[in-house]
Design brief:
Elements (H helix, E strand, L loop, with lengths): L1 H40 L1 H32 L4 H26 L8 H19 L1
Length: 132
Amino acid sequence: MENSGIYIENIASVIEFAGVLVIVTGGAISFARYIFSARKNGPESYKLLRQQLGKSILLGLEILVAADIIATVVTEPSMDQVLTLGLIVLIRTFLSFSLEVEIEGRFPWSKPESVNNTLTNTLLEHKSDGKK
């Protein structure tokens, strides 16, 4: 049983490393794309940089939360460890939520503007077809 604990700790460490790697690699790729497209696209490039960087951070945070959860399976959880994990997950979840709102420009539970416009146009077309 002790060996399985060591394996799980190692797996959690690998997953943590993967989360950090996703953030760093995604950030580097985002900045490289920004540098190459800034002259052509101007201010739009900055918006694209923020979106790509935000997506990299979001994915990395989700991976790090998974690693934290896996790491707690191995330990005898004390109240202090549980509270610490809960706080870490809460902070990372809040960051993920904030980044998603920033990237998408809307809350996750609201429909994208294009979906609302498409639905409205479809309903109006259907209504006008019925009057003919």
